[in-house]
Design goal:
By secondary structure, this protein is an alpha/beta fold. It is about 30% helix and about 20% strand. The protein is built from 8 helices and 11 strands. Strands 1, 2, 3, 4, 5, 6, 10 and 11 form an 8-stranded mixed β-sheet that branches. Helix 1 links the parallel strand 1 and strand 2.
């Protein structure tokens, strides 16, 4: 069984992506690494995201293909379990993994289920063109999600903008906001075309999401691939203290209620792999 992992990036040093650490992780888990998007235009079309993902899937030669964004990692303890899951679900088009989102290294939330493990050997017609962002996996025009594929407790460790500065985040969010507006003709929750408006909308989202980061994590518990980079976070980087928000956010009763509902609905979903 051959496993391909594809990712995409353009100028990852400038965008302050943990690209070297990510590739080290992917090399440890995959037999083949495919990189696309290296010639991504600065002012891009929003549908280009799905096209770049599709290029990665099409170029992959593995029986299973994993779609990994540069800010997503596996823990080294998950390696055996991932291999077992790929073999067990050989007749499924895909399976879902829980994604735990980190803004800072010390706290996270269970965000959603990601369909990143795609069975290309038996389902080569999978497309990356679905969902609101036009880049989620579909089969025969139907979106693949945790309701119609198996769920496997192999956590995705997601470091969302953790290593970026205000300036990098603002510029990046504005680019995506303009691309969204060109395609959908509205700004939605993306603020506006300028760096300032886009950053303000993003920071508002962070304020709303941070109280949901209830699970506490020690630095030593993170995947070995990213641990040292987390140790070296500087005050100017978002992950240091979420630009001053980390110790000010307080979860509401509603947040605890939603968390308990999730624990009841998915009792086997955990961040750690024994």
């Amino acid at each position: 069984m051959k496993v391909s992992i594809f990712t995409s990036y353009t100028d990852p040093e400038k965008r302050m992506d943990p690209w070297e650490e990510s590739l080290n992780c992917y090399r440890d888990f995959g037999d083949e690494i495919i990189i696309t998007g290296q010639n991504w235009e600065y002012e891009f079309s929003f549908e280009q995201i799905g096209k770049v993902f599709q290029e990665g899937f099409d170029k992959s030669n593995g029986d299973w293909v994993l779609n990994m964004s540069l800010d997503m990692f596996f823990h080294e303890k998950s390696k055996v379990k991932l291999t077992e899951a790929l073999m067990k679900h050989k007749d499924a088009p895909a399976f879902a993994l829980p994604k735990f989102k980190f803004f800072s290294p010390t706290r996270c939330e269970f965000k959603n289920f990601e369909i990143i493990c795609l069975n290309k050997k038996k389902f080569p017609t999978i497309k990356l063109n679905g969902g609101g962002d036009l880049c989620l996996a579909t089969l025969d025009g139907k979106l693949l999600n945790y309701n119609n594929v198996p769920i496997v407790n192999i956590p995705i460790w997601n470091y969302d903008t953790t290593f970026r500065t205000r300036e990098v985040i603002a510029e990046d969010r504005a680019r995506f906001a303009r691309a969204w507006h060109r395609h959908f003709n509205d700004w939605s929750d993306r603020g506006g075309s300028t760096n300032e408006k886009a950053f303000e909308a993003w920071f508002k989202m962070v304020k709303e999401r941070l109280p949901r980061h209830l699970k506490k994590v020690e630095l030593k518990e993170h995947p070995k691939f990213i641990n040292s980079k987390l140790e070296l976070l500087e005050e100017k980087q978002f992950g240091y203290d979420c630009f001053g928000l980390l110790n000010k956010s307080k979860p509401s009763t509603r947040v605890y209620y939603d968390y308990l509902k999730m624990k009841v609905k998915f009792p086997n979903i955990k961040l750690k792999i024994d």
